[in-house]
Amino acid sequence: MEKSFNAYIENSIRENWELTALSDFKGVSYSYKDIARKIEKMHILMEAAGVKKGDKIAICGRNSSHWAVAFFATLTYGAVVVPILHEFKPDNIHHIVNHSESKLLFVGDVVYENIDKSKMPHLTGIILVNDFSVLHSTSSKLINAREHLNQYFGDKYPERFRKEDVSYHKDQPEELALINYTSGSTGFSKGVMLPYRSLWTNLKFCYDNMTYLHAGDQVVSMLPMAHMYGLMVELCNCFAKGCHIHFLTRMPSPKIIMDAFAEIKPRVIITVPLIIEKVIRGKVFPMLEKPLMQLMMKIPFVNTQLQQQIKNRLEEAFGGNMEEIIIGGAALNHEIELFLRKIGFPYTIGYGMTECAPLISYSPWQKARLGSCGKVIDRTEARIDSADPEHIVGELHVRGDSVMLGYYKNQEATDAVMKDGWLNTGDLALLDKDNYIYLKGRSKSMILGPSGQNIYPEEIEARINNLPYVNESIVIEQEGKLVALIYPDFENAEKQGLSKRINEIMEENRIAVNKELPAYSQIVKIKLYYEEFEKTPKRSIKRYLYQNA
């Protein structure tokens, strides 16, 4: 097959025409044929709205079948897709739509209630993802096309719409396909420009290496599709294979997720460490802590049988049909990884970043190595900025087909991470002779949210530092929750006669800052420091000293 992302989508639709493609969990299902018809209708709307190849189209809403339709329709039309995390605050959404110069916005109903269309004056139209109705438009042609969409579709395909009619935009390797904003807020958001070669090389790698996936296999999609990890590995990869993808359209709580696994029995599970850790801590560890269990674990023969039983029980919890669980987005707890390895559980850890669309490394579980996040993927090279990459930690740099073009309208930020085609990941790692990566920490300080959202502590700190009587702050993660360490402005508080109220004031600050933050990045606790934080010669706080505060 030629090096074309859209060709994978086109072929899968044709080959799996009658199979079920997408379902909203506990809701409606669509076949590949239905998806093809919907894509075609979206193309009619895009044309009516005057969208040209290379124009930007934003999508912001919860995961759903129609979200996926809007995504595939945009790329197969030849427009550039701008996925936006639905949990972003309205101001962030306005900023991304404007900064990306999007012409159309596909929006979920919950998001639409909170945004202000007057703050996005360049949009030709806003389309509701739920039923593709036009909520707002400056183009009478678009409104007219939506009102008579079935008629337009019938005129275009008078015989009937057949699989032979499926013919999509022929993408070029260096052509811009997608802009993914790493965060919402104005000062921090960088629009990662991913060309088609980035999407193609990721998709081809998944397609070639996850050989256990076949047409008709069931998959549960629970990661946010506005993130590259869920978008590529769950949606694009599984769709190209002809799988049946079930979207958890509500906020995926552990209970909803476990119910979905039991009902759908997925072939592969793509997730973040938090979900795995919750299941094991909740279902397995309590059972192991009973005295009789501890005794039995010490008897060799019984121990082996017990381990098999635990493994079976755990596999049942995940639906009992999976080939492997792929964990990405953050480090897995070491104690849990040792336990999974001991019982022979089929898990593997991958690693990537938005700037690589996203994969950098992965190995199937049979070839995974303890403490590693897999082997560098095909068509990608990695190097460590250190005298002895196997033993001395250094910054990890990568180059290859997956690497972005740069940050949209931000040459300065691009130059800061790209040199001679090499991307500085900002992560600290070791690299063994077989090209397996061992991550040792982020020199960038990103924290992964509960469902795979990127949290940038610097953004939250910038807000906290603007609040009354705060000198400086550090936001850290403790047991999956965000804690703010604050060095208050004691001197000023003393002058105002408020030094006795400092705890109350900081609690008021915590409540105030949470009102501005999405649910996944709320501060649960504040810890006061009575002297300023230690700094580097460049006067930035030595964050690593405070991670276990």
Descriptive account of the structure:
This protein is about 35% helix and about 25% strand. The chain is α/β, with parallel strands linked by helices and about 550 residues long. Among the domains are: about 5-245, ANL, N-terminal domain (Rossmann fold, 3-Layer(aba) Sandwich); about 455-545, GMP Synthetase, Chain A, domain 3. The strands form 8 sheets. A 5-stranded mixed beta sheet has the order 4-3-5-6-7, with helices on both faces. Strands 18, 19, 21, 22 and 23 form a 5-stranded antiparallel beta sheet that branches. α2 runs antiparallel to α6 (about 140-145). The longest helix is centred in the middle third of the chain and has 18 residues, at about 300-315. The termini are far apart. The mean pLDDT is about 90.
Largest sheet entry: 5 strands, mixed
Secondary structure class reads alpha/beta
Using the CA coordinates, give the radius of gyration: 25 Å
- The average pLDDT is 92
The residue fraction in helices comes out at 25-40%
Q: For the record, give the distance between the C-alpha atoms at the N and C termini, rounded to a whole number.
A: 53 Å
Strand order of the largest sheet: 4-3-5-6-7
CATH H-level homologous superfamily name of the domain at 5-247: ANL, N-terminal domain
